[in-house]
Design goal:
Length: 340
């Protein structure tokens, strides 16, 4: 409230300064020229304050001009009707100037805010990308070293091998997280250029399953991918990342004996693919909240909440759509469509 009173106080001060200036120049200029001085004062107020103080300054300028300079002076009476027209024109011009000035100031502030926000986002993306790239090297070394130890001759205790397997699994999970961070920053910065080519969706799914081979150990995966499916223009590397994240999401949230189901079909000139599970389903309201960055259904399942956000960004970059649903009988379903 106090800043608002301050702006109205500035409007009153501007009117007083304009009146003093008009007293100084009134012997040398025409009466109507004095109105221009008050318009300058209104413009200054509009540059600082909002719409309310600007309107107040416009009214105050007309009243001061009438009281101090229009005959009979020092009254609000008007000797000639022509001055009424002068007051109306003066007020209308002041209002237009106020409106335009406030709009320009608002647009300038919004542009400045967007520029600061964009710069902050660029710095954040650059820092995140740099850190992610630095993490990749030691993670690759850790995974390679653990793999060598597991392949080394010698029996080793069961507990020792379990620890090594755990180190490898967690390092691979962290590697996927780092990869997701890198892809997120690339997609947000607009630096990603899709390398599209006609590609079979079953090959992309196969590559994703191969990458998740260890995570899927002991889990049944049911594929329904007919050989007659049409090719779809896609960047196979990025689309593989989509299926890696969708399948990994199903593995983490749908434990138990139920299979993970992957299917695809042609529908209405589009290729539609589905990844479904029989887990607890989606609790988000609305369910499409799961595609928001850093949103997680549960903390116990792990993850950073980036995988599904990347899926959405990649699919939409291909001109497709992706949505989430709860399955009848329990479980979650992710349905993506791509142009054939």
């Amino acid at each position: 409230m106090r800043p608002l009173f301050k702006e109205y106080g500035i409007a009153m001060a501007a009117a007083a300064i304009c009146t003093a200036a008009c007293f100084g120049i009134s012997p040398f200029v025409a009466l109507t020229d004095l109105a221009m001085v008050y318009l300058v004062g209104t413009t200054v107020v509009a540059l600082r304050g909002g719409w309310g103080p600007s309107v107040f300054s416009s009214i105050l300028g007309v009243l001061c001009f009438n009281f101090f300079f229009v005959p009979p002076r020092f009254t609000f009476d008007v000797e000639h009707p022509q001055y009424v027209v002068t007051f109306l024109v003066m007020f209308a011009v002041a209002m237009v100037i106020s409106r335009l000035t406030v709009r320009v100031r608002t647009q300038s502030e919004e542009a400045r805010r967007l520029e600061v926000s964009a710069e902050s986002e660029r710095l954040r993306s650059s820092l995140l990308s740099a850190v992610s790239h630095e993490l990749r090297t030691p993670l690759t070394a850790i995974i390679g070293s653990v793999g060598s130890l597991l392949r080394a001759p010698g029996p080793g205790s069961t507990h020792w091998r379990e620890l090594l397997e755990n180190i490898r699994e967690e390092a691979e999970r962290l590697t996927r997280l780092v990869h997701n961070l890198i892809e997120t920053t690339r997609l947000e910065s607009g630096r990603v250029r899709l390398k599209k080519e006609p590609y079979p969706i079953e090959d992309v799914v196969g590559m994703a399953l191969e990458r998740l081979d260890k995570s899927l150990a002991g889990r049944e995966v049911r594929n329904d991918l007919p050989e007659s499916l049409p090719l779809a223009p896609m960047d196979p590397v990025l689309m593989e990342l989509v299926f890696v994240n969708l399948i990994d999401n199903a593995v983490r949230h749908a434990s138990g004996p139920f299979p993970i189901e992957i299917s695809a079909r042609e529908a209405g000139g589009k290729l539609e693919a589905v990844v479904a599970d029989r887990g607890p389903g989606l609790r988000a309201e609305p369910v499409d909240r799961v595609f928001e960055k850093f949103y997680r259904e549960t903390r116990s399942a792990g993850g950073a909440g980036l995988g599904l956000a990347i899926c959405k960004a990649v699919v939409e970059a291909h001109g497709g759509t992706i949505r989430a649903e709860n399955r009848p009988g329990g479980g979650a379903l992710f349905r993506l469509t791509l142009p054939c």
